């Protein structure tokens, strides 16, 4: 079972994970974490002065339990902040007034293994990684140098700046990554 941390409408995330055979729990109650074999940190609002105690606690639980974490958009930014990294408060060119922009990227490592070396991804954000958090390594970039994906050097943690749950079959390998690592 996968825990989606948050209080929003995560229909696209739930449908994507369930289509891959995964059961899903959604909420902000950290007490749900032990019931789940993996964590998805979804997209959402900006990260201001840091993470809430609840969000940081859930991330810590999954790290200490050795369970996989997938950060999507704001979720990738949250992982970076959790590991001591910083964010650009506003970058231009990665958001349009309605819907998702798309752009080509360059990928290596895990991102390339999942999507190939030059995947086109969607984009709908204005915050982005500035200084990388400890243990995180970039594995995908936009043409302007914005980091589009990170993987942890030792832990089962992967983050993407885009929204694979809105990319149809092209984004499915990202969701399959966490589904394939969930046990129990």
Structure overview:
24% of the residues lie in helices and 26% in strands. The radius of gyration is 15 Å and the shape is globular. The mean pLDDT is 94. Strands 2-1-3-4-11-10-9-6-7 form a nine-stranded mixed sheet, sandwiched between helices. Strands 5-8 form a two-stranded antiparallel sheet. It has helices at 11-19, 53-64, 74-82, 109-115, 172-179, and strands at residues 2-5, 24-27, 38-41, 69-72, 87-88, 101-107, 120-123, 128-129, 136-142, 147-152, 157-160. Helix 1 links the parallel strand 1 and strand 2 (24-27). The chain is α/β, with parallel strands linked by helices and 184 residues long. The chain has a single domain, classed as Class I glutamine amidotransferase (GATase) domain (Rossmann fold, 3-Layer(aba) Sandwich).
CATH architecture: 3-Layer(aba) Sandwich
Query: Per DSSP, what share of the residues sits in E-state strands of 2 or more residues?
Result: 25-35%
The backbone outline, from C-alpha atoms, is globular
Strand segment tally: 11
CATH class: Alpha Beta
Low-confidence stretches: none
The H/E string reads: EHEEHEHEEHEEEEEH
Oligomer: single chain
The largest pleated sheet is described as: 9 strands, mixed
N- and C-termini, Cα separation: 7 Å
- CATH superfamily label: Class I glutamine amidotransferase (GATase) domain
> Could you estimate the helical fraction of the residues in percent?
10-25%
- Rg is 15 Å
What name does CATH use for the topology? Answer: Rossmann fold
């Amino acid at each position: 079972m996968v825990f989606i941390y948050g209080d929003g409408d995560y229909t696209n995330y739930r449908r994507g994970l369930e289509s891959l055979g995964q059961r899903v729990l959604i909420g902000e109650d950290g007490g749900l974490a032990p019931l789940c074999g993996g964590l998805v940190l979804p997209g959402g609002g900006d990260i201001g002065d840091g993470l809430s105690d609840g969000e940081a606690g859930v991330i810590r639980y999954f790290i200490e339990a050795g369970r996989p974490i997938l950060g999507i958009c704001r979720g990738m930014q949250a992982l970076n902040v959790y590991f001591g990294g910083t964010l650009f408060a506003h970058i231009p060119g990665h958001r349009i007034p309605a819907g998702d922009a798309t752009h080509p990227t360059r990928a290596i490592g895990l991102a390339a293994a999942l999507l190939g070396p030059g995947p086109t991804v969607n984009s709908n954000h204005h915050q982005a990684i500035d200084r990388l958090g400890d243990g995180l390594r970039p594995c995908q970039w936009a043409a302007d140098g914005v980091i589009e994906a990170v993987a942890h050097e030792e832990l089962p943690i992967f983050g993407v700046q885009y929204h694979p749950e809105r990319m149809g079959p092209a984004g499915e390998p990202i969701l399959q990554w966490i589904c394939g690592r969930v046990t129990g």
